[in-house]
Amino acid sequence: MSWEVGDASVSVGDLMSPIFRRWRTVALLVVFSILVAVVRIIIVTPEFEAKARLIVLAPNEAVTDLQTLQLYRNLVPAYQEILSSRRVMVAVLQELKLDWSPSEYRRRVRIEAHEESQTLDVVVRAGSPAESAWIATAAAQVMTRVAADVMQEERLVLLDPAAPPEKPVTPRPVLELVLASVLGLMVGTGVIFALEMFDRRIRDEVAVERRLGLPVLGVIPHIDL
Fold it and tell me: What residue intervals traverse the membrane (predicted)?
């Protein structure tokens, strides 16, 4: 397969030739990227995510009016805003006695809303499975009390307490090693083509014909004396 670039024809072999010729550069950058990823995996503290689920209850009587049902579904975003508020954050930090700054709290705690099922997830990231599950469940209980105080009605209740997760969400060794390898390969290939662009040496008769536009009448072989 080849492509026409100006008056010259470029084949797949022409594109791959610099990579094969400078394969050590690519290999070096791939190995370097993998080593950086390994160091990161070793030094980064694993973090685990646990999830407690809350549900917005409908009235005790059966709801047959679609407009009323939609109204209660619309409460889910409202509760999401309440649970994400500073008031709730302060209550959770105080009652659970967490030594987190506001920015760390917002990094570790997030609220995910599911309008169709009228549920919300309190997702907590912490340093151990047990800690993340305990904080998620306890925070969800605090949130239901604050939400009841704000909305003047108890419609948000804990549906499922959090369970300790089995695997950390970060670091992910296999994924990070694969990404490091791909990144090293891409950077190495880019470096090689950059070097080729600035390399004005003519290595063979094909390069003579391509760069000078002159036919090759003969080739003097290399002889080791």
Answer: 25-43, 174-195
